[in-house]
């Protein structure tokens, strides 16, 4: 649009330049005539300084009148690029995609999902059967937002804020929906010396809100903090990242097994705890009480030599 306007203005600009210089050319011609008249014995009473002032005044007046007749350029709708177009949402928490359009005029703003080229909203109306999507717009404002209720991980992707110009113009907004994660530090297996303290720390991240409760189980049975065994405690700190720490003092062989951290609004995480009674962790992996002296293949190579030396001694 700017190029077309400039192209149409070029002849007018040349005309302005020509007309502005006409008085100067006329004055120059008069000066030449004056010099010629003086050389011929005639006297010209016009002062060149007065002529220059008259020419400048005429040029400015003509330019002002000419520019008043030129229509102002038409500015179409534009996107405000200062609005962030990378949005991070959480599963289950309402997400908002924002778009700001200046000089919209009588155009319409729509939201389109790129994944399936699906029209979600047009103006303030919703054009999808998925009622989680809704257009948000305050009258006489430049803001056009898309609200997504209960977003899921599958809702991640590109959404386009589009203006109904010819051809349409769009502005992409990138949405990333994060799913809550649960992790027990040090997993999936922990080796604890008998008599020491078991310290299991569970971290819950990217949940729409801190979990109301965080439970712990041992071999799929809820841990009883009031059991006669004693020495079991739980410390939970809630926030954007919630931590739950399970402490079991004076670990014994009965504490061996699988422990699970179960937040109420996220998936669970499991870790296997081994209680060592003077054994080496490698031996636990082999399911034996001690470390093998040598691999079987080495034993098979040594046995024939032992038989030979035994036969020679006999």
Poorly predicted spans: 1-20, 25-30, 32-44, 283-300, 305-311
Strand content: 25-35%
Number of strands: 19
Structural class: alpha+beta
Span of the ends, CA to CA: 109 Å
- The run of helices and strands is HHEEEEEEEEEEEEEEEEEEEHH
Rg over alpha carbons: 43 Å
Q: What is the CATH C level class of the domain at 78-178, in words? A: Mainly Beta
Number of helices: 4
- Oligomer kind: single chain
Mean pLDDT: 78
Order of strands across the biggest sheet? Answer: 2-10-9-4-5-6
How do the helices and strands line up, and which of them pair or pack?
Layout: H1 2-39, H2 48-68, E1 78-79, E2 86-90, E3 95-102, E4 109-113, E5 118-122, E6 125-126, E7 133-136, E8 143-148, E9 157-163, E10 169-178, E11 181-184, E12 189-193, E13 198-205, E14 214-218, E15 221-222, E16 232-237, E17 241-248, E18 257-263, E19 269-276, H3 281-286, H4 296-313
Parallel strand pairs: 2-10, 12-19
Antiparallel strand pairs: 1-3, 3-8, 4-5, 4-9, 5-6, 7-8, 9-10, 11-13, 13-17, 14-15, 14-18, 16-17, 18-19
């Amino acid at each position: 649009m700017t190029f077309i306007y400039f192209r149409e203005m070029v002849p007018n600009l040349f005309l302005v330049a020509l007309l502005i210089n006409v008085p100067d050319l006329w004055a120059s011609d008069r000066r030449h005539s004056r010099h010629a008249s003086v050389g011929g014995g005639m006297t010209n009473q016009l002062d060149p300084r007065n002529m220059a002032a008259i020419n400048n005044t005429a040029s400015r007046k003509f330019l002002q009148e000419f520019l008043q007749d030129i229509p102002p350029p038409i500015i179409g709708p534009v996107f405000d690029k200062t609005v962030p177009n990378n949005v991070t949402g959480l599963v289950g928490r309402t997400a908002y995609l924002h778009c700001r359009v200046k000089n919209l005029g009588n155009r319409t703003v729509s939201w389109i999902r790129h994944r399936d080229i699906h029209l979600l909203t047009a103006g303030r109306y919703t054009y999808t059967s998925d009622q989680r999507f809704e257009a948000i717009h305050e009258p006489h404002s430049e803001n056009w937002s898309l609200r997504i209720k209960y977003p899921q991980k599958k809702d991640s992707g590109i959404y386009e804020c589009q203006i109904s110009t010819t051809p349409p113009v769009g502005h992409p907004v990138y949405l990333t929906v994060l799913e809550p994660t649960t992790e027990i530090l040090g997993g999936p297996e922990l080796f604890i010396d008998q008599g020491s303290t078991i310290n299991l720390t569970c971290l819950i991240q990217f949940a729409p809100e801190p979990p109301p409760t965080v439970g712990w189980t041992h071999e799929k049975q809820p841990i009883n903090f009031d059991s006669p065994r004693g020495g079991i405690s739980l410390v939970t700190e809630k926030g954007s990242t919630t931590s739950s720490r399970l402490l079991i003092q004076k670990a014994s062989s009965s504490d061996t097994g699988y422990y699970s951290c179960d937040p109420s609004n996220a998936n669970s995480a499991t870790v296997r705890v081994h209680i060592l009674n003077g054994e080496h962790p490698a031996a636990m992996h082999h399911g034996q009480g001690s470390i093998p002296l040598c691999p079987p293949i080495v034993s098979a190579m040594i046995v024939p030599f032992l038989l030979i030396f035994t036969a020679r001694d006999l």
